[in-house]
């Protein structure tokens, strides 16, 4: 079949067709990726230093830099909370939407998904206004209802500002998860359910024994892509502390509690007076190392979880 | 059954409300006089919309809007055309090294986008392209996901017989692509186009590190900086936010089905 589709391998056209992609990939992606690796082995900065220092940046980063470990720990803490929540609540909401009892499925699907479409900038700013200390909607409402006596500085303390970031990422991504789950549930053959019902399975059994195992490939995809993008989290927390709400203009949030590795990379190489490209490049590759590591762990974890059931 | 249905509905409505509420807040807050914003709970719209509109128009806001629009359109065109041409070659030709090259593309989809950022910014400076929109548009040239998506689509929905018969009739290979294949690709083009437009329109970090002239800012940069332009005028800035989200909402209302199919298609089938 495949052979019949093709034409003579001597033809020049396929090579001409793929040339723009691969040429631009070489110049605009591959070269920057490799050159960043080289930069990470130097003390390159804006002021003319270009000395090769071997693994100096990496030993500094891994052995002496508490900011790097803290930023990495932050994104891992965030993920440890919102990823299980996204998977569980995502499946739950999706199964509610897909249940036979509900009409207007599109409306519910789209309203949950709308957050995912929104610019990270808008998400960050909306949340910084909702959770603002003095004039924020949440504090004003809680005061009005008499639930709290004194306004809470949500974005001013370590634990509450972490919760705000977790809530923000959860809010933004739940629609994405729900979309995948509803698409996956819709593609499950209904006769499987009918057969289970005839055999007397309860709807809880159907959900845990049929729906969840059949969604395994989707879960694998969602968890792996979430790990890759979750470790690169940067724009939302950055905009949350961009100075829109009272007294929240600080790098990394209170005590660096919402600092992230890519934010650190940006801060080291493009912000303020540092412009330490070598350090920034080492942060990029250090983060990449952990992304690869956690992706493999995630894949193992999900594949094993499937075998037990 | 009826009770369960009622509870399901209530639960779903609560979820929908929790998701739509921040948008509602954003729209309403843009209609207030800034000082009134923090005096009461801004739940119903106020009457200061036009004044706020005047305030943001007097800033560089319209320029930001235009910049974002044309960058997103060009980015989308570049992404879709390169992905279609490359996908066509991978789907309908046999050539040496094809499988290796295709696996390479799939592999690069796993590499985080920020890995080469520092050197990319430097490279753009060497080409004297910093403080232009070129770095934002050029980034669309090698979209690995786009190629993957187009290859899959062309493989499954463009019949090889049609291509063969056009070839027998003496049609040249580029003409086959333009006249025969492209018309089949419209659903895939609109899906990939929508995803690309969304990505470009929402992008923040890349313009932040390549552009530092306010007239050249794209919308997300412009909005983020509205707060420094008018420190005190929150409602004007929030109105800017609303206007920046508006095109996406419109695009989404018309294209949600295509978009969702595109986002979920690959993973659900696989």
TrEMBL record, chain A:
Keywords, sorted A to Z: Cell membrane, Membrane, Transmembrane, Transmembrane helix, Transport
Entry-linked InterPro entries: ABC_transporter_permease, MetI-like, MetI-like_sf
TM annotation in the entry: 21-41, 72-94, 106-131, 214-234, 282-302
Gene3D superfamilies: MetI-like
GO cellular component: plasma membrane
Domain of life: Bacteria
Family: Belongs to the binding-protein-dependent transport system permease family.
The protein's name in its UniProt record: Carbohydrate ABC transporter membrane protein 1, CUT1 family
UniProtKB/TrEMBL annotation, chain B:
Keyword set includes Membrane: yes
One GO term describing the cellular component: plasma membrane
SUPFAM superfamilies: MetI-like
Domain ABC transmembrane type-1, chain residue ranges per copy: 65-254
Membrane topology listed for this record: Multi-pass membrane protein
Gene3D superfamilies: MetI-like (1.10.3720.10)
Keywords assigned: Cell membrane, Membrane, Transmembrane, Transmembrane helix, Transport
Annotated localization: Cell membrane
Transmembrane regions: 7-33, 69-91, 100-122, 134-155, 176-198, 234-254
GO biological process annotation, one example: transmembrane transport
Pfam families noted in UniProt: BPD_transp_1
Main location: membrane
Family from the record: Belongs to the binding-protein-dependent transport system permease family.
UniProt name for this protein: Carbohydrate ABC transporter membrane protein 2, CUT1 family
